[in-house]
UniProtKB/TrEMBL annotation:
Official protein name in the record: Long-chain acyl-CoA synthetase
Domain AMP-binding enzyme C-terminal span(s) in chain numbering: 484-560
Pfam families in alphabetical order: AMP-binding, AMP-binding_C
SUPFAM superfamilies for the chain: Acetyl-CoA synthetase-like (SSF56801)
GO molecular function terms listed in the Swiss-Prot or TrEMBL record: ligase activity, forming carbon-sulfur bonds
InterPro entries: AMP-bd_C, AMP-bd_C_sf, AMP-binding_CS, AMP-dep_synth/lig_dom, ANL_N_sf, ATP-dep_AMP-bd_enzyme
């Protein structure tokens, strides 16, 4: 495809070595893992709390796990649920399902029975591979779904032998680790490691899926409504890995024979951000993945002494906590060349703190489950702009349109809804044709996904997000963007955090309500004080008309403020 700066203004801001477009091979996601097993058989692919798995060992385990799944009756196209923390078994199960042409359905292993039941029933999964704690919950609801086999994973089996033996010691640390790893499951429950031990490697002649085949159902939308399964193909996932490798230069390093990256998998794999950056991108560039069942500063610093990391996919609060922890422990983090953050804006203070400590870069990116997920990123150079989402990835096009008419582009510099087109854009929502039609727009010969995010793009192609359409408040006919009011409130002395939501407001339509978390030394903060502070910076129609004080703000597992939950809390507070 021929590209011009006029058509794609962001290309003028690209680093010289980054291509505007990439070739996406027509192959399954697992093809890159198989190549790594041949090219780098002795390289460490996985490090789970000190236990290592080489690429040769990983490809062998995936083959045996694929064979084991076939023995359970799993066929190409069947959905297989995975509900596991980050561990070696998660990686093996993920690629084994894909190898036989089945479809992975990722679930948060801490979900309640009702949340798991909804997603399992919706996907039609026939097998569920679960952490023992989750397996107990799935077994309780399996009869009301199509799940016919539940396989429980004893995570302690992925530990180094010495650590596994230490779990039996009568000391607090050992007991805490054991309770985090293990839960008693009903007698007769099929165990993952037992299943694999008796499996033979899959015959190489067993058909591999094609690039256009469905690979993953990733549930999304839980903060705004009933979760729905985004359908991601092998081509979508391969494309995003290739785009990421071009953006970071990782593939160029592999081609030059340089040592592989060491990626820290602190983000949960059941989330699209962690899945792509760790499970697919990392193994596609033949890197070493260091696995963490949950984010914990002490565990990361311990791993850093054992196997120094070079790349950290994270959310901004993780960088803050690691920076503070490393300073306190006098730990060396200078091996990290870059961290890529998403899910929420990264403050200049967070970026500066990380970069000062590591000597590397703190880069922002943007994406959504529907874009596999990465669609934009800041350059890995001095051209980065803290607080901005960055530039569209190679082979990615964007439009900024009228939120009420996605076919009408707004003028440069004006607010509008972000639309994205590219090979990473999903195929739609599982069994939800109307919601698919509402989300995808065909224009200029391309299929665009509506993000629901309100953005501004400058003349250099850098994009800044300013709000969510669904969270926009309409009061007296005026549109109020919550993030603008929140930004003003967070600067107010005595305010530690803020969230702004809309509630029914009679003739106004909606009224603006501020939920504040106060600093420990806060005094004299009431609605009158809040309005007096805000009226210096925002329009009168956007001033809060109600104030609620909360002990903290509800957040998702990756740190996003859940405004829907805040709204419910405000209503409950009366």
């Amino acid at each position: 495809m021929t590209s011009t700066y006029a058509q794609r203004p962001w290309l003028s801001s690209y680093a010289p070595e980054v291509a505007p477009d990439v070739d996406v091979p027509d192959e399954p996601l697992g093809a890159a893992l198989e190549r790594a097993g041949t090219a780098f058989p002795e390289r460490v692919a996985l490090d789970f709390m000190g236990r290592t798995t080489t690429y040769a060992e990983l490809t062998d385990e995936v083959d045996r796990a694929a064979s084991a799944l076939i023995s359970l009756g799993v066929k190409p196209g069947d959905r297989v649920a995975i509900a596991l923390p980050n561990c070696a078994a998660h990686v093996v199960a993920f690629y084994a399902v894909l190898r036989i042409g089945a479809v992975v359905v990722e679930h948060n292993p801490t979900y309640t029975e009702s949340e798991l039941e909804h997603q399992l029933a919706d996907s039609g999964a026939v097998v569920a591979i679960c952490w023992e704690d989750t397996a107990v919950k799935v077994l309780a609801v399996a009869a009301r779904t199509e799940v016919r086999t539940v396989v429980a994973v004893d995570m302690s089996r992925d530990l180094p032998g010495i650590k596994r033996l230490a779990l039996s010691l009568p000391i607090k640390k050992a007991r805490e680790l054991k309770s985090a790893m293990r839960t008693k499951v009903p007698d007769g429950t099929l165990m993952w490691h037992t299943l694999l031990r008796g499996a033979s490697p899959l015959e190489d002649s067993f058909p591999r899926p094609r690039g256009g085949d469905l690979a993953l159902l990733q549930y999304t939308g839980g903060t705004t409504g009933t979760p729905k399964g985004a359908m991601l193909t092998h081509r979508n996932l391969v494309a995003n890995a290739v785009q990421g490798a071009e953006w970071t230069g990782a593939q160029r390093k592999v081609d030059a024979g340089e040592p592989g990256e060491v990626v820290y998998g602190v983000l949960p794999f059941f989330h699209a951000f962690g899945l792509t950056l760790c499970l697919s991108y990392t193994l596609a560039i033949s890197a070493t993945l260091v696995l963490f069942p949950k984010f914990d500063v002490a565990s990361v610093l311990e791993a850093q002494r054992r196997r120094p990391g070079t790349f950290l996919p994270a959310v901004p609060p993780m960088l803050d906590r690691l920076t503070a922890g490393a300073v306190k422990k006098n730990a060396d983090l200078t091996s990290f060349r870059y961290a890529i953050c998403g899910a929420m804006p990264m403050s200049a203070a967070t970026a500066q703190g990380w970069e000062r400590l590591t000597g590397g870069l703190a880069i922002e990116g943007y994406g959504m489950t529907e874009t596999s997920p990465v669609a934009l990123g800041s350059p890995l150079s001095d051209a980065r702009r803290p607080g901005m989402l960055g530039l569209p990835f190679p082979s990615t096009d964007i439009r900024v349109t009228d939120p009420d008419d996605p076919t009408k582009e707004v003028a440069p510099g004006e607010r509008g809804e972000l639309l994205i087109a590219g090979p990473q854009v999903f195929d739609g929502y599982w069994r939800r044709p109307q919601e698919t039609a509402d989300s995808l727009v065909v224009a200029d010969g391309k299929t665009w996904v509506r993000t629901g995010d309100v953005v501004v793009m400058d003349g250099d192609g850098f994009v800044e997000v300013v709000d969510r359409i669904k969270e926009m408040i309409i009061t007296g006919g005026f549109k109020v963007f919550p993030s603008q009011v929140e930004e003003c409130l967070r600067r107010m002395p005595g305010v530690a955090d803020a969230a702004v939501v809309g509630l029914p407001g009679g003739e106004l339509g909606e009224k603006v309500v501020a939920a504040l978390v106060l600093a420990a030394d806060a005094t004299g903060i009431d609605l009158e004080a809040v309005r007096a502070w805000c009226e210096k910076n925002i329009a009168r129609y956007a001033l809060p008309k109600q104030l609620v004080i909360l002990p903290d703000l509800p957040r998702s597992q990756i740190g996003k403020v859940l405004r829907r939950v805040v709204r419910d809390q405000v209503i409950a507070a009366g």
